[in-house]
Specification:
heterodimer; A: mainly beta; 5-stranded antiparallel β-sheet; B: 5-stranded antiparallel β-sheet; 2% helix
């Protein structure tokens, strides 16, 4: 649906205890959709109740005939509007269908609009500047700043307009590093000039010094920029790749969020020679990358400060470090595996395996330094112990996760003396990392969580956090209003939280959860045991 | 001088170059101290353009600019130049970025030196036009993210045709804008889906409606099972009825488009499509004669277990199906008409034709990535395929039947010296691909393209700004062999990469308004052109009289 947002008044799968009617009784459901800021009715909102969809009328009104009694849910959608919160899991607004249903009032919040004007050299409007909005998004339970809208360019009058964003905190950047070529003569050979690669609102190259835009629903802000040309310099040199490579890619100058700022005007893959012709003075990160002989993407990053022409800059490309994985399965009964594990070899040819030669767990390294950087163990038959490894890992800090492939649970995850379920793995520039040892067992316990809500039917999101762990495993998050049975899990001590909303909560960060620890319920899951725990709903932010 | 200008916008101006008619200045003997000077004016009104950027660069060092800003009276002077040829380019807000006396991608370079006058140039800059508008839906609300396509109808590179000139998307206010436009006739076409559309397939619902649910009602679903047909400026959906937007110099036109929904139809996919086996399906639509535009697709299984594409407006589509792995060669494209009942008439399907080729290079395949291009003579659309190291290539998804011209692109400058085909008729560079007839091309390739330099003369004197056209024999079937330039201020020109063969060289004054690629237009001029037989690696120096 492109830029449209699905607005979910979210469904609850559990039947309400209050639905007393015979299942064949049907009722009329009617209501009105209003703008949450102005209170005015909203016409032409798409309203969906199970398989039926209607558009609201001129007064925001809608109705459905023949709805069976019970717990129902409604989804709303209209371009330019958002529900309360923006992630489907963040709220829940189901209602009961019966003789007492009455008229429902549903609210939609208007989008925010960031508009502005970019002035360039000679006080002229700057056309073609690339505007980027940064916002917070949840990744692994952490609120991470990342680009949420790009590819908006200023028009020939230097104006831009970005809409379709929910209320929230944003940063705005203009990227104009390659626009000097549109200024006649600015990229002359003798004394080239360039616009700055990136400027954050209101006018800084440093994201930390930028002004945040805190926008309420329906708010429109005007964000003018003024940038000018400055002397630019040649940055030339060579990519020096260690070992053998299938392909060496062109180096790129990137920003703090891994976005490309400059690509070189010249690059020769055979010799590795590159040339950026006009880079404004500043300190930059250059990424060099390539494909190794197994066709895996590898990269290295380098810092460079440009204050004059550089002609012999050497960028080394390291293959990364291979970390072997060793799996030990302490299973009591033979594990059940699928019968069909297709895989394709390096020539792209498809093969079939009966899965018996596949690793029992996939190991994933999630970078704590770079937003989307992760490395996984290969997923193909293990003919030789060296086939089971996480290859080409770039230096840095990682959290490590293992996911059983064919059942069981991860009893322990270690690298040498490190307990990877509770400690960070640091991968050095050179040298080696002790093998990652995964121990799998098949005697999990079960856990039933019973939610005590103030209002019956109030939704909650349940988090189950192993004591001392980094982050809750995603399969331990439920969404329920009364009780939930979790999938079999590793024996151990857990804290159980039930939040009314996860909006803006860094639930992946143990420190962010620590302040709610007194409201969490503690439970111990034993091998083959059946644990249950009662937990009160915690109000997010209280 | 063939000018690679910074802007990708081409331009047609009816500028008159008066260089040859100007008084010769007194001979200057020093080897420096020459100048390029003149006045920058609005090509439409003749008014001077102040505070604009003007730059020169030696033609041998095109990135070695000297830049200045014009005075209040539009004057500019580049003093102390050494003799040589210079490009002259200007940029001003509200005008297209242009080189001196620019036409299409061609312009005249300025030659400075003894006995040459490069002062008091009249540099005419064409003001740019714009088309903008708002796309609204049937309720008058703005349509966001609608695909807006711009088409130009008129003379471009010697052919009178309708060609795409850009595309954009509407913003949250439904607004779109195309700037930097040449005068001419334009059409705007809008493609969008109703944001609220619901393409629900009737299912055999169970008799009992589960709690909180509602029974499916096909009658109730119908009002939202709609689509927008491609709609042109003026609100019409028939391309033939679209009224062009006539844009004059510097005009800012407004073309709002209102979309009206029609009941959506479904397209049943061929039985060979099996998503479980990795089939991929792509749907495209050809708007006017332009290249096909991708159509967003939603798939649904129907009650017979076949897959359908839902939510389409009736019309003609191009459906491409792909299978992975060893069956990739079964990829197929076909043009399909869907009427308002949504049924495909398979007899009408215009199936793409498989085309393969074997290219025999004299002295072995060249380095780099050589490609073979087929240029559709009707639509102007080019399809190309890489030539393998064994000289073979295949157009994987086939080719729409029609007339194509064949050309090679290689680093080595290799050209096709012979073209034969099984399954298609070949005339010159043109192959006729017929429906249902697989085509196998055999191409002999060699290196050694020639070049021609020369001078355009009128009454024995060099003429600046003349259009130079190198016309191949049998021009109707050899459009890719045409070469073109514009004479510089000293009347000189250069044509590179000339495929050996017989040609007629023409110099035309004000030739920019001619459909010069058309044989019926050319025949008026060919008699007074200069015949030249270009041999492999031949280099020719010619004088040609301006007509």
């Amino acid at each position: 649906m492109g830029t449209y947002r699905l607005l979910l008044v979210f469904l609850s799968l559990l039947a309400s205890a209050s639905a007393q009617q015979a299942p064949n009784d049907t009722f009329k459901v009617e209501g009105t959709v209003i703008n949450s800021v102005t209170g005015k009715p909203l016409p032409r909102v798409l309203v969906q109740l199970s398989v039926r969809s209607v558009l609201t009328g001129p007064e925001g009104e809608f109705s459905f005939d023949g709805v069976a009694a019970g717990r129902a849910s409604i989804m709303l959608m209209k371009p330019g509007y958002f529900g309360p919160g923006e992630t489907p899991r963040s709220y829940n607004n189901a209602f009961d269908v019966g003789p007492d249903t009455g008229k429902i009032i549903l609210k939609l919040a208007p989008e925010v609009v960031i508009a502005g004007h970019v002035t360039g050299q000679d006080e002229e409007p700057l056309e073609g500047a690339s505007m980027q909005v940064l916002g917070f998004r949840e990744i692994e339970g952490r609120q991470v700043l990342m680009p949420v809208r790009g590819d908006v360019r200023t028009d020939e009058d230097g104006n831009f307009r970005i809409a379709g964003l929910p209320s929230g905190r944003y940063y705005l950047a203009v990227r104009a590093g390659n626009l000097a070529r549109r200024v006649l003569g600015a990229q002359t050979r003798k004394a080239p000039e360039a616009y700055p690669a990136i400027v954050y609102y209101p006018g800084t190259a440093d994201l930390a010094a930028a002004t945040a835009l805190d926008l309420a629903p329906g708010q429109k802000v005007d964000t003018p920029f003024s940038i000018s040309l400055s002397p630019a310099y040649k940055l030339a040199g060579k990519v020096v790749a260690a070992g053998e490579w299938k392909q060496i890619n062109s180096p790129m100058i990137i920003d703090s969020l891994d976005q490309v700022l400059f690509t070189p005007e010249q690059f020769d893959a055979a010799s590795g020679a590159f040339e950026f012709r006009a880079v404004p003075a500043g300190t930059y990160t250059i990424r060099v990358s390539g494909s190794d002989l197994q066709n895996h993407y590898r990269f290295s990053t380098h810092k460079v400060t440009v204050s004059g022409s550089v002609t012999n800059f050497h960028l080394s490309l390291q293959p990364g470090i291979n970390i072997p994985v060793v799996e030990r399965s302490e299973f009591n009964k033979p594990r059940e595996r699928g019968s069909s594990c297709p895989w394709s070899d390096s020539n792209g040819e498809l093969h079939q395996s009966d899965c018996s030669d596949y690793p029992g767990a996939r190991v994933e390294l999630i970078s704590l330094d770079s937003v989307r950087l992760r490395f996984s163990s290969d997923w193909h038959p293990v003919k030789d112990p060296s086939d089971y490894a996480v290859n080409g890992v770039a230096p840095g800090k990682y959290m490590v996760r293992a996911q059983p492939s064919f059942g069981g649970y991860v009893q322990s995850l270690r690298s040498g003396n490190l307990d990877l379920l509770r400690e960070v793995l640091t991968v050095p520039e050179e040298g080696s990392v002790a093998p990652i040892e995964v121990v799998l067992r098949d005697d999990p316990g079960t856990l039933k969580v019973i939610v005590h809500a103030e209002k019956p039917g109030q939704p909650a999101t349940i988090l189950v956090l192993p004591d001392g762990a980094f982050f809750p495993s995603p399969n331990l998050i439920g969404n329920t209003s009364t009780e939930v049975d979790f999938p079999p899990m590793a024996p151990g001590n857990y804290k159980v939280f039930a939040f009314d909303s996860l909006d803006g909560l860094d639930y992946g960060d143990p420190e962010a959860l620590a302040k709610y620890a007194s409201k969490a319920a503690a439970v111990t899951v034993t091998a083959n045991g059946n644990a249950s725990v009662i937990v009160n709903v915690i109000h997010n932010g209280e | 001088m063939l000018q690679k200008i910074v802007s990708c916008l081409a331009l047609v101006v009816t500028a008159v170059v008066a260089l040859a008619g100007q008084q010769r200045s007194l001979a200057v003997t020093a080897l420096a101290g020459f100048e390029i000077s003149g006045t920058l004016v609005n090509a439409n009104t003749g008014q001077p353009i102040p505070r604009a950027r003007v730059a020169i660069a030696p033609v041998t060092q095109r990135d070695n600019f000297t830049t200045l800003i014009t005075h209040e009276d539009g004057r500019f002077t580049f003093p102390n130049l050494t003799p040589g040829k210079y490009t002259l380019t200007a940029q001003a807000r509200g005008y297209l970025l242009q080189s001196f006396n620019q036409h299409d991608q061609l312009s005249s370079s300025i030659v400075v030196g003894p006995d040459l006058d490069s002062s008091n140039l009249l540099f005419r800059l064409a003001p740019e036009g714009a088309i903008s508008g708002v796309v609204t839906d049937e309720a008058g609300e703005p349509v966001r993210n609608a695909q807006v396509m711009l088409y130009f109808t008129g003379l471009s590179a010697g052919i009178d045709a309708t060609r795409p000139r850009g595309g954009t998307r509407t913003n949250d206010e439904g607004a779109y804008h195309f700037g930097h436009l040449l005068p001419g006739h334009y059409l705007v076409a809008v493609s969008a889906q109703p944001w609220y559309a619901q393409h629900v397939t009737p299912q055999d619902g169970s008799m009992d409606t589960p709690p909180g649910q509602i029974a499916f009602d096909p009658q109730a679903a119908r009002p939202l099972d709609v689509a927008y047909p491609v709609t042109f400026s003026g609100g019409v959906t028939d391309a033939g009825a679209a009224v062009p937007i006539v844009l004059g110099h510097g005009d800012k036109a407004v073309a709002d488009v209102s979309l009206q929904p029609v009941p959506a139809v479904r397209m049943r996919l061929p039985e060979s499509v099996d998503f479980n086996r990795g089939s991929r399906v792509e749907l495209q639509k050809r708007v006017l004669e332009g290249p096909p535009v991708r159509v967003a697709t939603q798939f649904r299984g129907n009650s017979q277990g076949r897959m359908e594409i839902v939510g389409l407006a009736p019309g003609r589509y191009t459906l491409t199906t792909n299978l992975p792995g060893p069956e990739a060669e079964k990829a197929q494209s076909q043009e399909i008409d869907i009427d308002s009942n949504g049924e495909i008439d398979s007899n009408q399907a215009n199936v793409y034709v498989p085309v393969s080729a074997k290219v025999q290079f004299d002295g072995g395949a060249p380095a780099g990535q050589p490609t073979l291009q087929l240029l559709n003579k009707k639509s102007g659309e080019a399809v190309s395929a890489p030539i393998g190291s064994d000289g073979t290539l295949v157009f994987r998804q086939g080719v729409v039947p029609g007339a194509y011209e064949v050309s090679l692109f290689t680093n080595s400058g290799a050209y096709a010296k012979s073209i034969t085909a099984a399954g298609a008729r070949v005339t010159g560079r043109t192959i006729e691909i017929r429906p249902g007839a697989e085509v196998r091309l055999a191409i002999g390739a060699t290196v050694g393209q020639g070049s021609i330099t020369g001078t355009a003369l009128r009454e024995g004197k060099p003429l600046a700004g003349a259009m130079i056209v190198l016309v191949p024999a049998d021009p109707a079937h050899n459009q890719v062999l045409f070469r073109r330039d514009q004479s510089d201020s000293d009347g000189t020109f250069a044509l590179a990469n000339v495929v050996p063969g017989a040609y007629t060289l023409l110099a035309l004054e004000n030739g920019w308004d001619l459909a010069w690629m058309k044989p019926e237009v050319l025949k008026n001029y060919l008699g007074r052109g200069a015949a030249v037989q270009v041999q492999p690696n031949g280099k020719y120096e010619l004088k040609v009289a301006v007509q």
